[in-house]
Amino acid sequence: MGARKEVGAAPEVFVRALSALRAVVPRPEVLLEETPAPQRLAPHAVALSADVLTPADPDTELGTGRFVLLHDPAGHEAWQGTFRVVTYVRAELDHDMANDPLLTGVGWAWLTESLQGHGASFGSASGTVTRVSSESFGEISSEAASAQIEIRASWTPLDEAFGEHLLAWCELLCTTAGLPPVSPGVVPLPVRRRSTRR
Fold first, then answer.
1. Smallest Cα–Cα separation from 81: which of 91, 67, 69, 66?
2. 139: burial class by Cβ within 10 Å (0-12, 13-18, 19+)?
3. Helices 162-176 & 12-22, crossing angle to 10 degrees?
4. Among 6, 1, 66, which Cα is nearest to 34's?
5. Taking Cα atoms as reference points, which of 180, 188, 114 lies closest to residue 151?
6. Model confidence band, residue 132 (pLDDT cutoffs 50, 70, 90)
7. Contact by Cβ (8 Å): 37, 2
8. Angle at alpha carbon of residue 71, lines to 69 and 77, rounded to 5°
C-alpha cells in the first residue's frame, strides 16, 4: 500500500481495523493503495483505492475501485452498527455482456458471494449495479463503442474480520474486471507494478 495517514487518538477497535486492512495482500494483479479518507462521514475513516492491471501488460488497467471503512463509536442507526464499509468498482465490459438482462443481478451476486466466500459476516447491505453503453456517431463514428459496469455498495461488518472484507472486495473487483478466479493451491505469477499512477 501507499502512504499511510496516522490516526492519533483513534479507538483501539479502529486501530485494530487499520492493522487488519494494512496487512492484506491481494492477488498480484491488484494494485492496492491507501488514499485520503472522507472527513465528514464518520469520526474515523480509512480509504483504499485499487486498480486491476492486465497480467500481460501492467500498464493497462482493467478495472478500478475504492474501499472506505467508516467508524462511529457512538453507533449509527442507518448502519445498525459502529462500522460501515462503502465501496465502488468500475470495469470495462464487452457489448454482449453489457446487453445481458441478467447482468445487474449477477453483479450484485458477485458481491454477496465474495463476502460469503471469505467468511466476512455482514448486514444491512445496499447498493446499485449500473451498466453504461456508448456508441459514437457523426464525425466521431470511427471511435469504438464502449460499455462499463459500476457496482456501488455498502454494508455493515458483523465481525472484526476487516481484512476478509477487503479481500472479498478485491475479489469482486477482479471478477468485475474479468479475471479468472485463482484456484486453491495455485500461486499466480507476479505482475510488474507501475512506477506511477495515472
1. 69
2. exposed
3. 40
4. 1
5. 114
6. confident
7. no
8. 110
Output the pLDDT for position 187.
41
What pTM, to 2 d.p., does this model score?
0.82
Q: Name which of 116, 102, 113 is nearest 175 in CA terms.
A: 113
On the CB side of 24, CA atoms within 13 Å amount to 30
* Alpha carbon distance, N-terminus to C-terminus of the chain: 16
Could you tell me which residues come within 8 angstroms of residue 183 by beta carbon, excluding any fewer than 6 positions away? none
